[in-house]
Design brief:
Blueprint lengths: L7 H15 L10 H4 L3 H12 L7 H4 L3 H16 L10 H11 L4 H22 L5 H29 L2
Helix pairs in contact: 1-6, 1-8, 3-8, 5-7, 6-7, 7-8
Length: 164
């Protein structure tokens, strides 16, 4: 059986909707506005800031125990690289295909996929390299996540404007 054909306009509408959600211009249905800030670019920035936050909610304390860190990092890595609940590069490579079919330039999302893969590599190194310090990892992770957020914001703006 041949799969259904999807019109480019459908891809354009989906890409625009996703871009607006990444920019927190619209929120997922059923998600209260007070919680929507945990999604999209603002959610990535919040995650970045949590890496160096010294409170109980910050990564320094939350993942201070190496065994707890191993479990948390493994879950994040599975989401960002696995196929059960996520995908390679945080699904950005797959999203690049949708963006391309919408008629917009997909290259930014391919680059963002590589940035997410660099982040998962940082988590692997923090787990496996006894020479690396956890505090050094936290600072590097914060920088990398802010780079990702900046790239996600620029890419989402471009897609929302291209598919307007």
């Amino acid at each position: 059986m041949k799969p259904p054909t999807i019109a480019n306009e459908t891809y354009a509408a989906a890409a625009r909707e996703s871009a607006l959600r990444m920019l927190n211009k619209t929120q997922p249905e059923g998600v209260p506005a007070s919680f929507a800030k945990n999604f999209g670019v603002s959610g990535i920035r919040k995650l970045a800031d949590a890496t160096t936050d010294g409170s109980a909610r910050g990564w320094a304390k939350l993942f201070a125990d190496p065994s707890r860190r191993a479990v948390g990092f493994e879950m994040a890595q599975k989401f960002l690289t696995g196929t059960a609940h996520g995908g390679r590069g945080g699904l950005r490579y797959q999203y690049a295909e949708i963006v391309e079919r919408s008629g917009a330039d997909p290259s930014a999302y391919r680059n963002i996929g590589a940035l997410w893969e660099e982040f998962t590599d940082l988590m692997t190194t923090a787990q496996t390299d006894p020479a690396s310090s956890y505090s050094e990892f936290l600072n590097t992770a914060r920088t990398q996540l802010h780079r990702i957020a900046d790239a996600e914001e620029a890419a989402a703006l471009a897609v929302s404007e291209a598919n307007n």
